[in-house]
Amino acid sequence: MAKYDTLPTEETTETDFTTTDPDTLRESKDSYRHQDSVLRSWRTTIIVVSIVVFGLFATAFVRSYDFNSHVVTNTNSLHCGTSNTTAEAKALGCEFDLMSYSWTPKQCFDEETASEFREWVWESERQEGAFPFFYDQEGKNRVEDEHALSQSFGEVIHTTQEEHLGHCTFMIRRIHRVAESNGRLRLNSRFGTLAHTKHCSMEVLKSLKRPDLSYLRGIHSRFGVSFERC
User: Fold this and answer.
1) Which of 10, 119, 167, 202 minimizes the number of CB atoms within 10 Å of its CB?
2) DSSP string across 195-210
3) Per-residue confidence at 216, pLDDT binned at 50, 70, 90?
4) Residue bearing the bigger pLDDT, 192 or 114
5) 226, containing H or E segment
6) DSSP character for 92?
7) 114 vs 96, 131, 167, 195, CA distance in Å?
8) How far, in Å, CA of 153 to CA of 227, rounded?
9) Max Cα distance, the chain (Å)
């Protein structure tokens, strides 16, 4: 049977950390401080470099991504007519988009987000009830349905602040889907602007400052039905 012999070992010289010599202790502390300072410096450097690299990648992405292909820049683009009538809009193949309260060319009509918004706006727990659109600010004359709303060009339509914020929230989904569509979808001329996005973001931020949610129940918002291009 094999026999395992104990290998000879050499004792290494160990530092006596129990010394009470002041100079030795001071040198040891200074050494630790220096090492700790170096580690913190390297850690800070790594973090800064990581942020810079991430920033460069982000900048490269923003510069390379063609956002202009998803917004309206051409006045001769697709449109829903010049007479501002539903008959002409339908004849040109336009769809009524509940989310943007407008007749929109089919090429920039995002049905998926429109359907999600429609489902949300018809829920019975909406403030002022399902489909909270009115011809008056008092909420006494309710718009019957989506068809009636689509025929309301020239009317001032009133709605709740909750519906207004809901519209802004669903617009985030729409913008994301447009960005991922490789040009298949586009934003229409009414809401495909930075001005509208800033407006929506400010409305959401202002609502966060309110002490309670009672403001959402009020009929504080209004809009008009329009005919858009893309």
Assistant:
1) 10
2) HHHHHHHHHHHHHHTS
3) confident
4) 114
5) strand 226-227
6) T
7) 10, 14, 10, 21
8) 9
9) 105
How far apart (Å, rounded) are the C-alpha atoms in residues 230 and 228? 7
- In angstroms, the CA 113 to CA 26 distance is 69
| pLDDT for the residue numbered 230 | 82
Alpha helices in 65-182 (DSSP H): 86-91, 111-121, 146-150, 161-180
The answer, as to whether pTM is greater than 0.85, is no
Burial class (CB in 10 A: 0-12, 13-18, 19+), 19: exposed
Instruction: Provide the strand spans (E) within 35-165.
Output: 95-97, 102-104, 133-134, 157-159
Mean pLDDT of the chain, nearest integer: 76
Integer angstrom CA distances of residue 150 from 28, 90, 146, 189:
81, 11, 6, 17
User: 186: which residues sit within 8 A by CB, 6+ positions away?
Assistant: 69, 70, 71, 72, 107, 108, 178, 192, 230
Q: Which amino acid is at 13?
A: T
Structure tokens at 201: 């973001």
**Tokens 């040009």 belong to which residue?**
183
222 sits in which H/E element: strand 221-223
Q: For residue 142, what is the DSSP state?
A: B
Question: Cβ of 208: how many Cβ atoms within 10 Å?
Answer: 6
State phi, psi for 227 to the nearest 5 degrees. Answer: -120, 115
Residues 6+ apart with CB under 8 A from 219: 128, 132, 134, 137, 138, 139, 158, 159, 160
